[in-house]
Automatic annotation (TrEMBL):
Residues 11-96 form the Core-binding (CB) domain. Belongs to the 'phage' integrase family. XerD subfamily. Residues 117-302 form the Tyr recombinase domain. Pfam families: Phage_int_SAM_1, Phage_integrase. It is found in: Cytoplasm. PANTHER family: PHAGE INTEGRASE-RELATED, TYROSINE RECOMBINASE XERD. The active site is at 158, 182, 254, 257, 280, 289 (o-(3'-phospho-dna)-tyrosine intermediate). GO terms for cellular component: cytoplasm. The gene is xerD. Forms a cyclic heterotetrameric complex composed of two molecules of XerC and two molecules of XerD. This is Tyrosine recombinase XerD. Its main location: cytoplasm.
Length: 314
C-alpha cells in the first residue's frame, strides 16, 4: 500500500519509481521487458539529476529540459530520446494523479523531432532462400529452425512471443495459434499450410531439446527460462542468413515480422486484419507498412518508367 501523499522533497526517487512500476504491472499488465525498459530510462534520468543535487520525484521542467538537452548533445537518436521522455511523462503523470505532486513538469516539454524510419524488410525471394537453406539442415536442429521460421513468417509474432510459445498453443486447433502478447492480451493468428507441416515435422523431435521428461514450451531448451532464448534464435538466424548468402545485418526476427506484414499487404490483405494479427493496439502503428509500399512503388516507377529518367522525352 502507498504511503499518504507528501511533498516530493520528502520522498526518495526509489520509492516513487517502484510505486510507479508496481502500478504498471498491476493496472496495465506490462511485460517484464517493458518494465525493465521503464526502470532503465528512469534510472538514467535520476542519475543525471543526482549529479546536480536534484531528485527525480522533485525535478521541475527546467531540470528535465536540461536532461533532454544533454541527451541531444551526447548524440542520442531522437527516437531513443523520445522514448525517455515518454517514460518521464508517464512517471510524472502517475505522481500527479496519485497526489505525490501538485503539478506535472513534463506538460511544457516538447518531444524531440524525429523522422519516421521505414522498417527494414526482406523480399519474398530472400525469405524463400532462408527457408530453403534451413530445410537443407539435418537433424532435430534443422527441423526446429524450419518450424521457427515458418511460424514467424506465417504469423508475424514478436520474437518473445515466438520463443515462449506454450506447447498448448499448437496442441488444440492446428490451423490457428492462440498467442498471449503485450499487456497479457490474447489474439488468434491463422497458420499457413507450410507452417502446420513444419510443426508436425518438428513435434516428434521436440523431446531432444527437453531437460526433463516434459516441458510446457513448444521450443524447450536448457536455458534458465526453460525455452529457446531470443539471443540464441538470433544467432541461428545469423547462421542461416550467412549460409543463404544474405547480409546478416539485414536479417533479424523483427525484420521477418516486417516482411510478414508487408507481403500480406502486397497480396491484398486489409490493414485492419494485419493490425489484429500483429497485435498492434493502435492501427496507426500498422500504417507504417503502407508507407513501405508507397516507397517501393515510387522506386519502381523511378527505375522503370520510360519518362522517369533525365532527358527522357514523351
Amino acid at each position: 500500500m502507498l504511503e499518504p501523499a507528501a511533498s516530493p522533497k520528502d520522498r526518495t526517487p526509489d520509492f516513487t519509481v517502484e510505486a510507479f512500476l508496481e502500478m504498471l504491472v498491476a493496472e496495465r499488465g506490462v511485460s517484464r521487458n517493458t518494465l525493465d525498459a521503464y526502470r532503465r530510462d528512469l534510472a538514467d534520468a535520476a542519475g543525471w539529476l543526482s549529479g546536480r543535487k536534484r531528485v527525480l520525484s522533485g525535478a521541475d521542467s527546467d531540470d528535465l529540459r536540461g536532461y533532454l538537452d544533454g541527451l541531444e548533445r551526447a548524440g542520442m537518436a531522437p527516437r531513443t530520446a523520445a522514448r525517455r521522455l515518454s517514460a518521464l511523462r508517464q512517471y510524472y503523470r502517475f505522481l500527479y494523479s496519485d497526489g505525490h505532486r501538485t503539478d506535472d513538469p513534463t506538460t511544457v516539454l516538447d518531444a524531440p523531432r524525429q523522422g519516421r524510419p521505414l522498417p527494414k524488410i526482406l523480399s519474398e525471394t530472400e525469405v524463400d532462400a532462408l527457408l530453403d537453406t534451413a530445410r537443407d539442415m539435418d537433424g532435430p536442429e534443422g527441423l526446429r529452425l524450419v518450424c521457427l521460421l515458418e511460424i514467424l513468417y506465417a504469423t508475424g509474432l514478436r520474437v518473445s512471443e515466438l520463443v515462449g510459445l506454450p506447447f498448448a498453443a499448437v496442441a488444440r486447433d492446428p490451423r490457428v495459434l492462440l498467442v498471449r502478447g503485450k499487456g497479457d492480451k490474447e489474439r488468434m493468428v491463422p497458420l499457413t499450410d507450410a507452417s502446420m507441416a513444419a510443426i508436425a515435422d518438428y513435434k516428434p523431435v521436440r523431446g531432444v531439446f527437453m531437460t526433463g521428461r516434459s516441458s510446457p514450451f513448444l521450443f524447450p531448451s536448457r536455458s534458465a527460462e526453460g525455452h529457446l532464448t531470443r539471443r540464441r534464435f538470433g544467432q541461428l538466424l545469423d547462421e542461416v542468413a550467412l549460409e543463404a548468402g544474405i547480409d546478416r545485418k539485414r536479417v533479424s526476427p523483427h525484420v521477418l515480422r516486417h516482411a510478414f506484414a508487408t507481403h500480406l499487404l502486397d497480396h491484398g490483405a486489409d490493414l485492419r486484419s494485419v493490425q489484429q494479427m500483429l497485435g498492434h493496439a493502435d492501427i496507426s502503428t500498422t500504417q507504417i507498412y503502407t508507407h513501405v509500399l508507397t516507397e517501393r512503388l515510387r522506386a519502381l516507377v523511378e527505375t522503370h518508367h520510360p519518362l522517369a529518367h533525365p532527358g527522357a522525352q514523351r
